[in-house]
Amino acid sequence: MLCGGKLIQLYLVTTLNLPIEQILELYGFRWNIELDLRSLKQTVDLNTLRSLTPDMAAKELVLGVTSYNFVRAAICAAARAANLDPRQISFSRAQDGVNACMPSLQMARSEQEYARELDKMLRRIAQCRLPKTSHRPSYPRATWPRGNPFPRKKASGTGGAHA
Length: 163
Description:
Layout: E1 2-3, E2 6-7, H1 20-28, H2 30-43, H3 54-82, H4 91-107, H5 111-126
Antiparallel strand pairs: 1-2
Helix pairs in contact: 3-4, 3-5, 4-5
């Protein structure tokens, strides 16, 4: 891996007694863990806890993780019904779909009406597919030119106090 023009070697260390292919496969699952942690911090908004006491902070964490798991369960159910891989569905868009459908689910007056609303929600979530991006773009990323953050000093033509 190159970093700042220097070659850096990364080492994977484990005490597992498994074939190297299986260890690499397990290490590959780390990407999904990183995505899940990002979703917990950013989308579920657990990057900053607002509680003032340890007990309330624990409750805030439990509720955040529970809501995350609820959306993930809805994604899994929607993906299963649409014959998709759950990781092909956007978490943040699915969360928006769950939040939008919650009032309808709560207002359902019968099991049949609840089942219809749930089916609508799952179909809506299944439409929240992520774009297919298996490769980097072939063109370089555009950058803005760096400007000077301070204005230039104007020359004083009168020979004032700052001359």
